[in-house]
Amino acid sequence: MALSLQEKIEDTNQGVYLIGTTPPKSGTDKAQLETIAQKLLGRLHEIEYDGVIIYDIQDESSRIAKPRPFPFKETVDPREYSQLLRNLSQLDVITYKSVAQRGEAEFSEWLNETRNDFELKNLVLVGSPSSHGDIKLSLPDAYKALAKQDSDVFLGGVTIAERHASKRNEHERLVEKTAQGCKFFISQAVYNAQATIDLITSYARSCKAQGTAPKRIILTFTPCGGEKTLEFMEWLGISVPEATKYRMLDSENTLSESVRICRENLDLILQSCAHLDVPLGLNIESLTNRKEEIDASINLYRLLKATMELNLAEKQIA
């Protein structure tokens, strides 16, 4: 019998390979929604993957003064798209939920709907992108509200290596989120390998000091097709070292160069963290709806999955 996504994530001998996507824009009717979902699954038909991550896209303009490179568009309810993709693919999904917009009562109602009406149990809760603005529910309070419910939610959290690079405490957040119920973590897109290595190292040392097993960290990678996508990546807070930036922009093919860089970064992370026993996973996303970048993300997935599978096989031999 095939393992569930939860079982794969919790089994450190298993690789975990995911595809990240955003729901279609708000107002998309059900027939068109299914057409879009079928098109996505058609693209993924030739690769083997364990499930899909569906993001909850929010207007993050409060986080940064710089204008958003691509206009923000409301999307359909991520739960609706998650349910559709799961039913069409027969694979597990992970659904993101931004919690700041509702109070505890509304959030508790959302949780009930999510389990009972949508039958979704793999969730990643995300806090406010900024400490400014109208925050109706903090992330810690959302975790508490979830803990009050007698539910079988398989809870994940977000981890941001860039935050560790500046504040040096992201590993403490991971330990704290684990205590609050998180069973796995998904990273922001990786373009700064050293920041990720530093985070994983600090996290492994904290877990060792406390005598606890580290939770799986699923590393996200995305291709970059040009200056506009790079601008969007930086707007999102993704750290792109200056040398990496110019290596992509000055190359004959920015997209191909970005795929090579992602492969090198994953190799470096795997080599540098092999001794730490932190289970890793892979998530590939495309930040734009440009066909070239979506196609490149599929090629990137193939390449990075092969890299991780080889690494996992070598560890099991050792």
Automatic annotation (TrEMBL):
Family matches, as InterPro entries: FAD-linked_oxidoreductase-like
Keywords of this entry: Oxidoreductase
Gene3D superfamilies tied to this protein: 3.20.20.220
Name this polypeptide is given: Methylenetetrahydrofolate reductase (NAD(P)H)
